[in-house]
């Protein structure tokens, strides 16, 4: 659910002016209970959740038992020891115990906000006293010091034994306390009263009329605090944690923990970024391929008139044919460049807004994308040359030979040697053009040879027709009757 929806369940006046980002969503995860197995197992269970959670709720349904509570919280400390803090740079103000002489310190916090919730609290003590007992550092007794200097050796030995036990327990608790304030951004204690005023009502299905006002207010305060803390997203390796990123990071963290290795947030995050980039790159490459195919389709349609006009206007020298090919190729280039620019811009925006702003990584991925697109562009151009321009080249070759025949026919009669020479020169130039165009269309030698053979046959047929026409014209000129010339005179008197 969205954070706004979570806040609106029981709105608190304290949050009236709080700006809640609309894109932040809240997820609730219930971790496996502790104590069933050893602490190493509990720490592995807790660590992935602690790393990804903005707020952590530790439920306790009993009186204040600091030894037991701190033992269980110690599992979180052990989980923190599984994280290399130096790689998870997100400096925040350290919460300092009242008995700590340090004023303040900027340290790395691997985990978010810890909330210790005492449920059904009906015992002596308020929040301040409970916090004091839980988190104030205890004096650690020195077993070698004889406080009163009196008594038998046996009594002094007993005192040392008792003091030694106190030293062990106090030092252990103090160690947990110190680790907790270093591991969490903040620690808050909540004393939640029973939901109902009468104990027997707890066995019933709780309805609004049964829930006590004190419980409602306490729950509202807890929710209000959670909302305020969740307005800023959880960071992992100094980057926002999102749903898709969690789906990659959590298995990575679990795998690392199961290998008894340190979790390196920056390394895990970099691996995640690389995976996200690979996924985005694959999508972009498919989009680039589609853009090239679309450009090919559009160019095939838009260049049809250009090529047809060139065929209609060509001459024996092939006028307009090469210009039309170049113009059609330019149209394809323009369509491809427009499509590629759009896709690359979208890919760049996606990377910057959702994946990474690292310039080096961006440049690297853009270079890879452009290299990949070069192959698709090359394929599109070859396809365009094969399906559009190569048929045009064949038609142009025939049109050029036919145009030459028309030009030669207008000048008949001529010697057959001159006609043959003109046809051979045109056919030779046409063959050279076809070879260049066939290479651009990636045709096989067999395909080219078949095309040249077809054009040569056409040239042979045309020259034979031209010879016949030439002979007919010569014959017609020989049989024309001789008409005497008449000179008209005009005499003017």
Helix/strand layout:
Elements lengths: L2 H6 L30 H14 L2 E6 L5 H16 L9 E3 L12 E3 L2 E8 L8 H9 L17 H31 E8 L21 H18 L4 E2 L2 E2 L2 H16 L6 H38 L1 H10 L7 H35 L3 H52 L5 H25 L4 H34 L15
Helix pairs in contact: 2-3, 2-7, 3-5, 7-8, 8-10, 8-11, 9-10, 9-11, 10-11, 11-12, 11-13, 12-13
* Helix and strand element order: HHEHEEEHHEHEEHHHHHHH
| Proportion of residues in β-strands | 5-15%
Distance between the termini: 123 Å
Low-confidence stretches: 87-106
Q: Count of helical segments?
A: 13
**What percentage of residues falls in helices of 4 or more residues?**
55-70%
State Rg.
45 Å
Q: So what's the overall shape? A: rod-shaped
What is the mean pLDDT?
Answer: 79
Can you tag this structure with a few keywords?
mainly alpha, 62% helix, 3-stranded parallel beta sheet
Q: Can you tell me about this structure?
A:
With 493 residues, the protein is mostly helical. 62% of the residues lie in helices and 6% in strands. It contains 13 helices and seven strands. The protein has helices spanning 3-8, 39-52, 66-81, 127-135, 153-183, 213-230, 243-258, 265-302, 304-313, 321-355, 359-410, 416-440, 445-478; strands at residues 55-60, 91-93, 106-108, 111-118, 184-191, 235-236, 239-240. A three-stranded parallel beta sheet has the order 1-4-5, with helices on both faces. A hairpin with a 2-residue loop joins strand 6 and strand 7. The longest helix has 52 residues, at 359-410. The termini are far apart. Mean pLDDT is 79; it is low at 87-106.
């Amino acid at each position: 659910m969205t954070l706004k929806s979570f806040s609106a369940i029981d709105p608190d006046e304290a949050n009236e002016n709080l700006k809640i980002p609309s894109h932040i969503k809240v997820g609730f995860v219930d971790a496996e209970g502790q104590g069933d197995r050893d602490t190493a197992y509990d720490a592995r269970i807790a660590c992935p959740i602690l790393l990804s959670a903005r707020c952590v709720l530790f439920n306790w349904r009993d009186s204040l038992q600091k030894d037991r509570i701190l033992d269980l919280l110690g599992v979180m400390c052990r989980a923190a020891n599984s994280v290399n803090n130096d790689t998870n740079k997100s400096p925040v103000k350290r919460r300092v115990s009242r008995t700590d002489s340090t004023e303040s310190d900027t340290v790395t916090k691997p985990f978010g906000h810890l909330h210790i919730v005492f449920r059904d609290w009906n015992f002596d003590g308020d929040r301040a006293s409970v916090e004091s007992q839980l988190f104030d550092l205890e004096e650690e007794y020195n077993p070698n010091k004889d406080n009163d200097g009196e008594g038998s050796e046996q009594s002094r030995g007993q005192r040392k034994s008792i003091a030694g036990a106190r030293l062990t327990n106090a030092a252990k608790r103090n160690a947990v306390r110190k680790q907790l304030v270093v591991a969490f951004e903040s620690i808050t204690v909540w004393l939640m009263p029973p939901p109902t005023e009468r104990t027997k009502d707890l066995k019933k299905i709780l309805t609004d009329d049964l829930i006590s006002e004190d419980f409602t207010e306490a729950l509202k305060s807890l929710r209000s605090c959670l909302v305020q803390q969740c307005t800023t997203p959880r960071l992992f390796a100094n980057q926002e944690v999102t749903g898709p990123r969690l789906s990659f990071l959590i298995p990575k963290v679990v795998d690392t923990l199961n290998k008894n290795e340190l979790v390196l947030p920056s390394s895990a995050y970099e691996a995640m970024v690389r995976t996200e980039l690979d996924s985005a790159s694959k999508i972009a490459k498919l989009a680039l391929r589609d853009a090239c195919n679309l450009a090919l389709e559009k160019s095939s349609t838009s260049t049809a008139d250009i090529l047809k006009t060139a065929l209609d206007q060509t001459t024996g020298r092939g006028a307009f044919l090469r210009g039309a090919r170049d113009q059609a190729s330019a149209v394809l280039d323009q369509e491809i460049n427009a499509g590629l620019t759009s896709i690359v811009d979208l890919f760049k925006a996606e990377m910057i807004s959702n994946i990474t702003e690292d310039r080096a990584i961006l440049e690297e991925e853009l270079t890879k994308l452009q290299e990949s697109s070069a192959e698709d562009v090359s394929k599109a151009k070859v396809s365009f040359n094969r399906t559009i321009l190569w048929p045009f080249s064949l038609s142009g070759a025939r049109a050029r030979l036919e145009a030459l025949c028309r030009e030669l026919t207008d000048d008949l009669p001529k010697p057959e040697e001159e006609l043959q020479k003109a046809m051979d020169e045109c056919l030779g130039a046409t063959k050279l053009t076809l070879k260049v165009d066939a290479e651009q269309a990636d045709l096989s030698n067999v395909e080219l040879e078949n095309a040249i053979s077809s054009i040569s046959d056409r040239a042979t047929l045309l020259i034979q027709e031209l010879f016949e026409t030439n002979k007919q014209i010569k014959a017609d000129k020989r049989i024309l009757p001789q008409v005497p010339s008449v000179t008209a005179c005009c005499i003017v008197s």
